[in-house]
């Protein structure tokens, strides 16, 4: 770790954004299970001690959210919209401070953290607008006296569990549509990154969101919270982002109370470069896609497939650009790649490199810590990657770019689809007929064509196969928080 400590509140223009108690039913409360420490992954120092809620406190919060939901749903869409818009404005007004809090607890460089704040806020803005467009239908009756109407109503209490890699955006992407739909919302942030979530709660309170409508429940024991969310009958919706392993646990647990579930789970994104691609654009796209958040996103390229004719040129160009990237403390000017979140995350990158080199891959950049402290790890590129290597089937979730060689389209489509995952995929090509065919053949919820960045609030984000259930963002995202009711009337 770096030999520095972080006086986080001194770095903030508005230190009151640094909240450490839980936000439940409009009140800031202490945890019955004491506190847990939140650290800066770049420096290793403790940033704050945060309230550790007990399972009983989670149950009490669910009761409050249940009561608040009925009143919230009874408001007009426009009233909900106005409050969400106010929350959005406050988030953007405090972008700098929120970015600083995010970098301190998560590690990503400040510019990237501020980008996440804007991205996260965009979901609140989008769904503030969408709240007013929850339209129903009328259907021609099946008998002469029948009139059929379809209305949409909020599911009820929605509970979220979110990861540390996007501490703000993964909450707002769920809370925005939930609140717009008329659900109340319980956020259980990752134990590594609760401060960004609590800062959102400070601003939700300032925006005037009623007590119990938006709650933030930090807890050191995610499995206990998960059980309470899943087993409590008052929770009607579970929305999760994280690993496929945990998603499976939550789906099983939620089965007994038959809850509506949406799951944004692991990915294993292929990034394909065909020989007719604009190679410089492909290199740019690969860097944006692979090294965003230092490789720690579920849509980061995990396997880079390059056609034989351009393989060596692509590897050289990529190496030259990546070698120039600066690894450093996200709070320091100029850092492009921060630390990894934990020692375990570093170990996984090392394991994947060791496995690959033992099976014949060659490291052309990085490969070991090279004197970097703590959980910093240099961006690494390996050539000669093959399907037998661990990263072919498992998400590395770190700054390792393996380059696979391929000869023809059918071969690369087969390799790209040979995974249990199906979240994001990318390819670079210019031939129009190839572009259509490959986009259709990739078994993924998201396909980036000649771009390495696909995330936006206006598009439906989500995966197929074991990458998840449901979509977030766009008009589709709000449907996850709505039930359809059909009213049959005899006239
Ligand atoms: N799709 C995505 O965006 C993400 C994918 N991943 C993948 O998962 C791997 C492991 O990362 P990790 O952070 O451990 O991901 P996890 O899936 O373990 O964690 C995600 C969230 O789930 C919580 N959680 C963990 N176990 C349970 C449980 N039994 N019941 C309820 N909630 C639970 C975590 O809490 P707590 O913080 O307390 O552990 C965290 O809030 C990564 O290397 C990556 O491959 C990880 C994060 C995001
Ligand atoms: O890794 C994740 O789950 C977060 C997705 C980031 C994005 O929305 O682009």
From TrEMBL:
CDD domains: ALDH_F5_SSADH_GabD (cd07103)
EC number(s) stated in the UniProt entry for this protein: 1.2.1.-
Entry's Gene Ontology cellular component terms: cytosol
GO biological process, one term: gamma-aminobutyric acid catabolic process
Signal peptide: none
Superkingdom, taxonomy of origin: Bacteria
Pfam families noted in UniProt: Aldedh (PF00171)
Ranges for domain Aldehyde dehydrogenase: 28-487
GO MF annotation, one: succinate-semialdehyde dehydrogenase (NAD+) activity
InterPro entries from the UniProt entry: Ald_DH/histidinol_DH, Ald_DH_C, Ald_DH_CS_CYS, Ald_DH_CS_GLU, Ald_DH_N, Aldehyde_DH_dom, Aldehyde_DH_Superfamily, Succ_semiAld_DH
Stated name of the protein: Succinate-semialdehyde dehydrogenase
Organism expressing this protein natively: Pseudooceanicola albus
Taxonomic classification: Bacteria, Pseudomonadati, Pseudomonadota, Alphaproteobacteria, Rhodobacterales
């Amino acid at each position: 770790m770096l030999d520095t400590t972080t006086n986080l509140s001194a770095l903030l223009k508005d230190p009151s954004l640094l909240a450490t108690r839980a936000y439940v039913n409009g009140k800031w409360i202490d945890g019955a299970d004491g506190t847990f420490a939140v650290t800066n992954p770049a420096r290793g120092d403790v940033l704050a001690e945060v309230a550790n809620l007990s399972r009983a406190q989670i149950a009490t919060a669910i009761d409050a959210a249940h009561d608040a939901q009925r009143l919230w749903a009874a408001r007009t869409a426009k009233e909900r919209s106005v409050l969400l818009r106010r929350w959005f404005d406050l988030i953007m007004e405090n972008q700098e401070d929120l970015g600083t809090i995010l970098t301190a607890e998560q590690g990503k460089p400040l510019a990237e953290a501020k980008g996440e704040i804007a991205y996260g806020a965009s979901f609140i803005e989008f769904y503030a607008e969408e709240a007013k467009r929850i339209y129903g239908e009328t259907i021609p009756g099946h008998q002469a006296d029948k009139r059929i109407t379809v209305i949409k109503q909020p599911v009820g209490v929605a509970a979220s569990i979110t990861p540390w890699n996007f501490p703000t955006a993964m909450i707002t992407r769920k809370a925005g549509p939930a609140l717009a739909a008329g659900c109340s919302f319980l956020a259980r942030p990752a134990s590594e990154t609760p401060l960004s979530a609590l800062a959102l709660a400070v601003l939700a309170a300032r925006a005037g969101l009623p007590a119990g409508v938006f709650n933030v429940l930090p807890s050191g024991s995610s499995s206990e919270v998960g059980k309470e969310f899943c087993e409590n009958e008052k929770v009607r919706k579970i929305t999760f982002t994280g690993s496929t392993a945990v998603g499976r646990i939550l789906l099983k647990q939620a089965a007994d109370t038959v809850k509506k579930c949406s799951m944004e789970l692991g990915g294993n994104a292929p990034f394909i470069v065909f020989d007719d691609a604009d190679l410089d654009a492909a290199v740019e796209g690969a860097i944006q896609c692979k090294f965003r958040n230092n490789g720690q996103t579920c849509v980061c390229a995990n396997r880079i497939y390059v056609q034989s004719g351009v393989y060596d040129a692509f590897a050289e160009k990529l190496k030259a650009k990546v070698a120039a990237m600066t690894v450093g403390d996200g709070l320091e000017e100029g850092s492009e790649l921060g630390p990894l979140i934990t020692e375990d995350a570093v170990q996984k990158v090392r394991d994947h490199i060791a496995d690959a080199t033992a099976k014949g891959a060659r490291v052309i950049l990085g490969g070991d810590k090279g004197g970097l402290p703590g959980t910093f790890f240099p961006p690494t590129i390996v050539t000669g990657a093959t399907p037998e290597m661990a990263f072919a089937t498992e998400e590395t979730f770190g700054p390792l770019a393996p380059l696979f060689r391929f000869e023809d389209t059918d071969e690369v489509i087969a390799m790209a689809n040979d995974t249990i995952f199906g979240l994001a995929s990318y390819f670079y090509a210019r031939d129009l007929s190839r572009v259509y065919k490959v986009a259709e053949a990739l078994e993924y919820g998201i396909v980036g064509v000649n771009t390495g960045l696909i995330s936006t609030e206006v598009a439906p984000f989500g995966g197929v196969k074991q990458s998840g259930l449901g979509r977030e963002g766009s008009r589709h995202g709000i449907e996850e928080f709505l039930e359809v009711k059909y009213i049959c009337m005899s006239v």
